[in-house]
Amino acid sequence: MRYTAPPVGRAPRTLYGLSVKLDGKIALITGGGRGIGKAVALAYARASAKLAICARTAGEIEAAAKEIRALGAECLALPCDVAQEDQVKKLVDEVVKKFGRIDVLINNAGVMTRPTPVTEYDASKWDYTMAVNLRGPFLMAKAVLPVMFKNGGGSIVNVSSSIGRGAYANFAAYGASKWGLEGFTQILAAEVGGRKVRVNSVEPGYVATKLTGFHGSAPESVTEVFVFLGSDEGSHVSGHMLSSSSWRSELKK
Ligand SMILES: NC(=O)c1ccc[n+]([C@@H]2O[C@H](COP(=O)([O-])OP(=O)(O)OC[C@H]3O[C@@H](n4cnc5c(N)ncnc54)[C@H](OP(=O)(O)O)[C@@H]3O)[C@@H](O)[C@H]2O)c1
After folding, report:
1. Is residue 203 part of a domain?
2. What average pLDDT does the segment 94-109 reach?
3. What is the Å distance from ligand 1's center to 113 Cα?
4. Ligand 1 near 29 CB (within 6 A)
5. C-alpha–C-alpha distance, residues 202 and 200, integer Å
6. Assigned domain for 198 exists
7. 67 vs 11, which has greater pLDDT?
8. What's the CATH number where 102 sits?
9. What total of structural domains would you count in the chain?
10. Could you report the per-residue pLDDT of 78-90, keeping only the tens digit for each?
11. Ligand 1: which of 207, 212, 215, 242 to mutate, judged by most atoms within 8 Å of the beta carbon?
């Protein structure tokens, strides 16, 4: 099924017959400066959400925020390294100061190093991959959850990978970080479900971004499930491992 992005400036009321309402919802998206995170942020803006995006490269998040604001959505662009707890705390404080709450957290920031056999892989690259891909979502959840509890609930979406659901030789660090993220997702869903916070993971498929050398499908084509999971229509969904391409049939199982 091919997704056609709605015209700039128009909020879609339906997406494949699904009523999508993000009006007034506050979404914090990590790694929102480019690639999948930016495409999801733009999709959220089209659905009338208010955005906060972060990444380490200030120029990229500022440029992305400009595009988001051109759609009529409010957007905060805040530099932050998700692996640094002090920066994460400051980020969340600033988002709450501006918007008063956080309804959706999308843990999208991620890194992948060159595929390398374990015997030749630098321990420093292992640590770096784990810090961004696994410690980052933990730190973000730790900082955002009290805000969601106070506000009566929310939605956390962790961006995983098919490499976090299978055995891919030479991807030990990236794969283990994403397998870890899947486990974290399941545990968190069980832990915070009683507080009306839902937690799910999404594997986006093979997407044309800097991470893949711009091979794969368009980032805009994988955003639909993220909008669904942030919406009230997705409020019954928690603890699921979904794919951008087949999430509807996965939810029917
Ligand atoms: N593209 C694919 O085919 C694919 C497939 C499966 C899963 N994924 C996952 O999708 C997510 C997005 O990847 P992408 O393909 O869109 O890659 P990308 O274009 O390289 O974007 C990654 C984003 O994460 C940010 N980021 C990286 N390290 C960060 C840190 N320490 N703190 C804050 N932000 C950080 C980057 O900005 P800065 O570098 O400026 O910080 C950038 O905005 C990742 O989790 C990736 O593992 C991608």
Report:
1. yes
2. 98
3. 11
4. no
5. 7
6. yes
7. 67
8. 3.40.50.720
9. 1
10. 999 999 999 999 9
11. 207
